[in-house]
Amino acid sequence: MNAKQRKMLARVIVAALMWGALELLPRVGVELPTPANFCLWLVAYLVIGYDVVLKAVRNIGRGRVFDEHFLMTVATVGALALALYERSGDFAEAIAVMLFYQVGELFQSYAVDRSRKNISELMDIRPDYANVEVDGEVEKVDPDDVEVGSTIVVQPGERVPLDGVVISGASSLDTAALTGESVPRDVAEGGEVVSGCINLTGVLRVRTTREFEESTVSKILELVEDSTSHKSQSENFISKFARVYTPAVCYAALALAVLPPVFFVLSGQAAAWDVWIYRALTFLVISCPCALVVSIPLSFFAGIGGASHAGVLVKGSNYLEALSKTKVVVFDKTGTLTKGVFDVTGVHHSPLPTGELMELAALAEVASSHPIGKSLQRAYGEPLDRSRVSDVQEISGAGIVATIDGKSVAVGNDKLMGQVGAEHVDCHDVGTIVHVAIDGTYAGHIVISDVAKDHAAEAVAALKGAGVEKCVMLTGDTQRVAESVAESLGIDEVHASLLPQNKVERVEALLVEAGATVGEAPAGEDGPGDEEGRRETRRGKVAFVGDGINDAPVLARADIGIAMGGMGSDAAIEAADVVLMDDDPMSIAKAIKISRKCLRIVYQNIGLALTVKFACLALGAFGIANMWLAIFADVGVMVIAVLNAIRALRVPR
Amino acid sequence: MRKSYPIEVDCANCANLMEVEANKVAGVKKATVNFMMLKMTVKFEEGADPAQVMPEVLTACKGVEPDCSIEF
Fold first, then answer.
1. What is the pTM of this model?
2. Domains of chain B and any CATH numbers
């Protein structure tokens, strides 16, 4: 508890004791004269409620009339006045209402504080200092002051303060705070380290590659801090609702106080002003909309906090809301469902031993930075003697011709084989085929294919389980490769041989299919018009999952752009609405589940609060509910709603 | 320029009011209040001096919520 809360608690206790004492006095036979009695009650009332009354008066002065302070002040002052007028001496009601209201506020502030602490602990990834090495001396400085290219030392147990490359040392890094992944990641000399990770075992010397402001940790924190600026429709609904609701209730209360008595007078009966004023006051107490106003944003914040702990960064509650309505998930193949790393899956039709053919291919590709070339080098796996290779010629879109040990070796596709005059043999396997020819004679081919990620098939199944109706795969790869991958993973629809701009078209087509109007603003912009807005709310959302590097336009165009591999990739964090920190496609289903749970809680709270409120309003209007019930309904609903909201913090496994 | 400041405020609604008021201050391009993180993030207009703008933001916020505070 902070100082303010402790002060409030003290006020609550003092007021409760005074109330108890004042209730006891008449029972032990002490009859105070009414003015003295009233003054004592008034003191108790002011102890507990002076700030509410002050705020109400001040807000009226500023022209903001209808807020909760106003409702409470009118109700309690009214109750005091009524008790005075009726000479009943029953001032307890006003005190009780104010007391319970303040207890509710106190509880709410305490609960919000607690969940805030929980969430900030989850997100506690900000490094406090960096150990900079200058002329062999290590100096502790603010990460903000470290320039790019400085050498920093990270001791075991310390947090990596800035992104960089390891110059010396080897260690394992705990990335759980960033990715939710509990298995440590090993790094060695030359490896990249990402800020926010915790160094576990060895001392690392790191050359920084980014300033603190550009580092992963800053990007993530910035993203989380900004997440509340994108309001969800539910939140907008509540703020609109509160704007209409409070004045409406005040006028309804006024009508309830005035109309029935006037009607009775006109029809010649007793007016019973006090009865109806009392009912109107009860009405005001019940109507306080705190439960909604507090719990809805809290639910979303808890949802976003829980998700980020699980390695899923959501940029705003509107995206969390959209995520819960996802009906179509569109995947980019390479790097999303597959590892984006090619493995050799076969060597065919070669007169040479497999190892020798692989060596020739790897040597020819020795200088290549193409993923296929790199994969061949990696698949060969042994050190390569560059001096054996000369006259490397790269033929764009076809392959490489190089002289190795005096022989001309051509490594590439069927076009290249045609160029060097070698008769190639087609392959029946699915994958990318690399043909090899030596001195114009065909020497067989190597089949390489991109390997599906470990959890890809499971992930697609999990998405179906989470209520996604259709999974679509887009790829620039050939139809045959695409279909084979799609079949093994359980994808419903495949579009192959696409250029990046075709991917945008495909996603637009899917958006139209899902019921979007073409040319509308992407999700998250200002609320669409009423008619369109309603349809917009109802329709299923289309999510696009990519690696965030070359599909930024598609990420932006889809209802929800989900980027894979946020670790160290600025592009992904910038372009996407949701960032999956680990590259695991399983996280998509996890993200959808988190969003569903959060939205379920939001709707439960809206439903609960409105039902109880309207039921009590009706009871109050007919005089069945008194002010006691009213305040219990108000505070009770709020407590339940807040506790329910905090549930969103816990991530379903 | 974009800076974020720790704030002190009691209720979510007051935080929203602070946000509305802060956005009206001259020199503020966009202000967002994150009630849950207790942070106010201010994007300043080109050439505006945060040291001059922030006291005005605080005054504006105090107008709607006297209990609030902004550390700058």
1. 0.76
2. 2-70 (3.30.70.100)
Full DSSP string of A202-245: S-EEEEE-S-GGGSHHHHHHHHHHHGGGS--HHHHHHHHHHHHH
Name which of A648, A562, A645 is nearest A312 in CA terms. Answer: A562
Cβ neighbours for A510, distance < 8 A, ≥ 6 positions apart: A328, A330, A472, A542
pLDDT per 10-residue tile (average), chain B, 72 residues: 82 79 90 81 87 91 83 83
User: Which residue in the block uniquely carries the two structure tokens 């006691």?
Assistant: A628
- Token pair belonging to B69: 């505070």
> Looking up tokens 């009590």, which residue turns up?
A616
Which strands sit side by side in the sheet containing A441-452, from one edge to the other?
A: A338-348, A441-452, A432-438, A407-412, A399-404, A389-395
For residues B21 and B53, is the Cβ–Cβ distance under 8 A? no
Query: Residue length, chain A?
Result: 653
Give the burial class of A283: count Cβ atoms within 10 A of its Cβ; 0-12 exposed, 13-18 middle, 19 or more buried. buried
A493-552: per-residue pLDDT in tens?
998 877 777 888 888 888 888 876 554 444 444 444 455 555 555 678 899 988 756 677
d(CA A90, CA A94): 9
| ipTM computed for the complex | 0.80
Torsion of CA A523, A527, A532, A537, to 10 degrees: 60
Q: How far apart are CA A523 and CA A593, in angstroms?
A: 20
Do A228 and B41 lie within an 8 Å CB cutoff? no
Residues in chain B: 72
Contact A539, A515 (CB under 8 A): yes
| Terminal CA-CA length for chain B | 15
Please indicate whether, in this complex, the C-beta atoms of B35 and A239 are within 8 angstroms of each other.
no
- Residue-wise pLDDT tens digits, A383-401: 888 888 888 888 876 788 9
Domains, chain A, in order of start with CATH, read 3-120+230-298+601-649 (no CATH), 130-219 (2.70.150.10), 316-338+453-592 (3.40.50.1000)
Active site residue A332: yes
Q: Which of A113, A145, A274, A332 is catalytic?
A: A332
User: Hey, how many other C-beta atoms are within 10 angstroms of the C-beta on B26?
Assistant: 9
Sequence-distant (≥ 6) Cβ neighbours of residue A401 within 8 angstroms = A364, A391, A392, A393, A395, A408, A409, A410, A411, A412, A416, A420
Of B57, B12, B62, B50, give the one whose Cα is nearest residue A109: B12
What residues of B are in contact with residue A298 (Cβ under 8 Å)?
12, 36
Residue A141 bridge partners (DSSP) = A130
Query: Residue A309 corresponds to which tokens in the numbers above?
Result: 């702990």
Residue of B nearest to A113 (CA): B36
